[in-house]
Amino acid sequence: MVARARQSGQGKFGCFLWILAFSIGLMAAVKMVPVRIAVGELTDYAAEQAKWAGNRPAEQIQGALVNKARELELPVTKENVVIEKTGGKIRIRMTFSVPIEFPGYTYQWDFDIDRRWDIFII
Known about the structure:
Blueprint: H1 12-51, H2 58-71, E1 81-86, E2 89-102, E3 105-118
């Protein structure tokens, strides 16, 4: 019978690599998931604002979106929000970039939210 090398569980380097990969993935998730949740909340808020935009001016909706983004700690300014109302439809477009800081590197996560909705008029 031939004896095999590393039969006694001495493969420590492979275990180290798996732990390192898991740690990097966990760190990325901890930094990026809250940003994605905040962007989802902002998109839902934009949909709610768009539904009832019938008698409200575009500037008021724009201000509400910027205030909500500030509340969610997203870097959205009035220049990043474009609102177009035509007929019974509204288009809201928000473009912004969120910096995600990792040790030794800052990733710029770009978002381009462009949605169209029907306006409900009461």
